[in-house]
């Protein structure tokens, strides 16, 4: 059939469906157009005739010379006898010149390895040839180890064989192999003879960086269990495990959910049948050295490290006195230093049971999984070498350890906080920084603007700008500075602007509700799951608690802002609500600017490792930076922190006479108006006792006295 294998497989299966329904007892396997029918006795003539006629209805015909009635039967390159199955003659491609040749060779071996017993250990030299390849035509040649491995594989292909399944006997799964290369065998015990049905192998490269022994064997048993169900339609009757006794089952089940699910409902045994394969199986003699619960009467040791000082070490109590052991290794990451601290602790107290307390969740996670673990691909070579060293130290230990994580600087009573504080002070060292270095480190943490650095640390403008320009997260964007005056309140808590923007990295909490005081530029933001009024109400209540209650809130005409519930809520709080400024298309400019500032800060904080924080915590930190670290300009050209301006400033107005443009009449007005404040593009004016109103700055010009004007206003004018 000249079409895709998938279509061929589907079409033949469709053609066989009617015959399968009529004759349910025969087992029918087919791979595209190669069909195998297995029955306890020879197929009857009527069944054979119906089989041919059924296929002919779909245009499929069986060549008489292709029919095999006696053993040995040849099927898909295998030779099948009454009791056994073995691989037919197969010549492996030993001439290797490129990565593509290696890939084809490994692919051919993978196809037959499950009934030839070709282990991961046999294939490892070939897998090594595939590593670090970037081009299919990249040159590759067999190494001496690969040549030797290929000879072993060819010998297994020629000599190995598996047995056919006998429904009269139960199926068992046996774990075998060395500690580094575990595999499983699906077999049946037929009287005193072990009949191997198939081999099952784990993945060569584990999915996790560190896979515990319990998870490793548990996933292998699950894979074998699923294979037994798929091929034989039954569950394994027993798992034979490389334990000295079955006493480990409870401890392993508590350590690994994967192992607990795999062995659920299956009998466990430690008695291997008499067979040469199991003479080299590595037996697990002991339980895990790393315990899941604290160890009584054990020494408690506190470890810590500092990336800033390059110091790492541990502390412990001896007769009510704290003792320290500190090392210095600058230029390395905190992860490496934290692991080194634990390694040195295990070396120093090699013959004592230990309770280890660390403030590094990463280091604790590695220690709790490393005992007899399978190590996969780890980020850097330095960390990989350190993890392998840690694994060797733990495997050589005889005394148990327990390792736990605690948050630093919790200030709680008790030995945990006390010990953590002792080692934390020891590795932190004295903080003596010059202003420029202190400003650089502050910007690495807060990502504030150059103006904020200049004011807080007393730097020159060029120094502050150089620090921001050197930051990879802030260099592409201009520093956070006040850009002119958008219509705003004449004092704090006079006029707010509220709006919603989306930040997809927060997932369900992607809707950021933002309110900003238009006078002080103090801001508050909330990450919520919707834009409905219930979310708006929640945000406003939080903002009122932080910034106080404003006299007016300005929004757009979104349904959540202009609905009945919003109007009722603001009325209860005594807040006036407006939705726009006539003839102004950028009335929400201040809050829109704050949207950009918040998103930029969130992106910078995420790159700096703050991804471990929750969305609410990251947003709170961004608001802190905007309110406390980024100064804004006032009308008198001074710079001040927004939160200080919000709580300390008084209403400040100019009260200068001006003339305004009347867009309805298309002419300048004739009434004298008072200018309260003005800025880049906007001005606030009022006529008599009327409330202030905001207009574009181009609609305002100084009041110049004309003939007939009163003596009182003569000579008064404004300077723009």
Automatic annotation (TrEMBL):
Question: In which organism is this protein found?
Answer: Melopsittacus undulatus
Q: Which Pfam families match?
A: IN_DBD_C (PF00552), Integrase_Zn (PF02022), RNase_H (PF00075), rve (PF00665), RVT_1 (PF00078), RVT_thumb (PF06817)
Q: Does the keyword DNA-binding apply?
A: yes
BP GO annotations: DNA integration
Among SUPFAM superfamilies, the record links this protein to: DNA-binding domain of retroviral integrase (SSF50122), DNA/RNA polymerases (SSF56672), N-terminal Zn binding domain of HIV integrase (SSF46919), Ribonuclease H-like (SSF53098)
- Bilayer-spanning residue ranges: none
List the PANTHER family hit by this protein, alphabetically.
ENDOGENOUS RETROVIRUS GROUP K MEMBER POL PROTEIN (PTHR41694), RNA-DIRECTED DNA POLYMERASE-RELATED (PTHR41694:SF3)
State the protein's name. Answer: Uncharacterized protein
Recite the UniProt keywords alphabetically: DNA integration, DNA-binding, Endonuclease, Hydrolase, Metal-binding, Nuclease, Nucleotidyltransferase, RNA-directed DNA polymerase, Transferase
UniProt similarity note: Belongs to the beta type-B retroviral polymerase family. HERV class-II K(HML-2) pol subfamily.
The UniProt GO MF terms for this protein read: DNA binding; RNA stem-loop binding; RNA-directed DNA polymerase activity; RNA-DNA hybrid ribonuclease activity; zinc ion binding
Q: Which PROSITE patterns match?
A: INTEGRASE, INTEGRASE_DBD, RNASE_H_1, RT_POL, ZF_INTEGRASE
């Amino acid at each position: 059939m000249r079409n895709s294998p998938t279509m061929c497989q589907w079409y033949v299966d469709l053609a066989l469906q009617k015959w399968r329904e009529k004759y349910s007892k025969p087992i029918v396997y087919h791979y595209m157009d190669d069909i195998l029918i297995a029955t306890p006795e020879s197929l009857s003539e009527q069944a054979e005739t119906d089989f041919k006629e059924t296929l002919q209805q779909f245009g499929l015909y069986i060549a008489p010379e292709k029919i095999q009635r006696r053993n040995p039967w040849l099927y898909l390159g295998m030779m099948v006898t009454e009791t056994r199955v073995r691989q037919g003659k197969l010549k492996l491609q030993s001439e290797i010149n490129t990565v593509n040749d290696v890939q084809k060779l490994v692919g051919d071996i993978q196809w037959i390895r499950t009934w030839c017993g070709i282990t991961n250990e046999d294939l490892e030299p070939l897998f090594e040839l595939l590593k670090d390849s970037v081009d299919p035509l990249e040159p590759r040649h067999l190494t001496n180890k690969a040549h030797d491995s290929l000879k072993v594989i060819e010998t297994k292909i020629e000599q190995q064989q598996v047995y056919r399944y006998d429904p009269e006997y139960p199926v068992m799964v046996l774990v075998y192999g060395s500690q580094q290369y575990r595999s499983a065998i699906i077999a049946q015990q037929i009287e005193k003879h072990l009949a191997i049905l198939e081999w099952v192998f784990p993945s060569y490269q584990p999915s996790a960086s560190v896979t515990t022994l319990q998870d490793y064997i548990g996933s292998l048993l699950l894979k074998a269990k699923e294979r037994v169900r798929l091929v034989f339609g039954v569950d394994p009757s027993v798992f034979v495990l490389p334990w000295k006794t079955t006493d480990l089952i409870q401890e392993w089940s508590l350590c690994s959910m994967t192992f607990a699910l795999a062995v659920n409902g299956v009998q466990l045994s430690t008695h291997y049948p008499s067979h040469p394969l199991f003479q080299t199986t590595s037996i697990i003699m002991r339980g895990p050295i790393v315990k899941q619960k604290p160890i009584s009467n054990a020494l408690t040791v506190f470890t810590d490290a500092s990336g800033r000082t390059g110091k790492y070490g541990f502390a412990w109590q001896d007769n009510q006195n704290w003792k320290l052991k500190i090392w210095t290794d600058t230029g390395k990451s905190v992860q490496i230093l934290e692991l080194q601290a634990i390694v040195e602790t295990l070396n120093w107290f090699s013959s004592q049971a230990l309770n280890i307390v660390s403030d590094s969740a990463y280091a604790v996670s590695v220690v709790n999984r490393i005992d007899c673990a399978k190590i996969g691909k780890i980020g850097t070579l330095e960390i990989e070498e350190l993890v392998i060293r840690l694994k060797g130290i733990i495997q050589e230990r005889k005394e148990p350890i327990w390792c736990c994580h605690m948050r630093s600087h919790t200030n709680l009573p008790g030995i945990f906080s006390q010990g953590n504080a002792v080692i934390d002070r020891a590795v932190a060292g004295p903080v003596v920084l010059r202003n420029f270095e202190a400003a650089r480190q502050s910007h690495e943490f807060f990502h504030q603007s150059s103006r904020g650095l200049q004011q807080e640390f007393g730097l020159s403008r060029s120094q502050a700008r150089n620090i921001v320009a050197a930051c990879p997260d802030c260099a592409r964007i201009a520093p956070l500075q006040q850009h002119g005056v958008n219509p705003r309140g004449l004092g704090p808590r006079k006029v707010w602007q509220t709006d919603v923007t989306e930040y997809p990295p927060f997932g369900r909490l992607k809707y950021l509700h933002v309110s900003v005081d238009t006078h002080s530029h103090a801001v508050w933001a909330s990450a919520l799951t919707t834009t409905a009024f219930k979310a708006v109400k929640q945000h406003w209540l939080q903002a009122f608690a932080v910034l106080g209650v404003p006299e007016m809130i300005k929004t757009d005409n979104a349904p959540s802002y202009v609905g009945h519930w919003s109007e009722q809520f603001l009325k209860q709080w005594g807040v006036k609500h407006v939705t726009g400024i006539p003839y102004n298309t950028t009335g929400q400019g201040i809050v829109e600017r704050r949207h950009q500032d918040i998103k930029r800060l969130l992106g910078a904080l995420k790159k700096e490792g703050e991804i471990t924080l929750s969305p609410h915590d990251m947003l709170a930190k961004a608001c802190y930076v905007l309110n406390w670290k980024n100064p804004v300009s006032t009308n008198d050209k001074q710079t001040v922190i927004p939160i200080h301006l919000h709580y300390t400033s008084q209403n400040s107005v100019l009260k200068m006479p001006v003339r305004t443009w009347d867009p309805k009449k298309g002419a300048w007005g004739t009434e004298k108006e008072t200018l309260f404040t003005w800025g880049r593009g906007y001005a606030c004016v009022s006529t008599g006792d009327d409330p202030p109103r905001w207009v574009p700055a181009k609609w305002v010009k100084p009041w110049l006295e004309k003939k007939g004007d009163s003596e009182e206003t003569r000579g008064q004018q404004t300077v723009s």
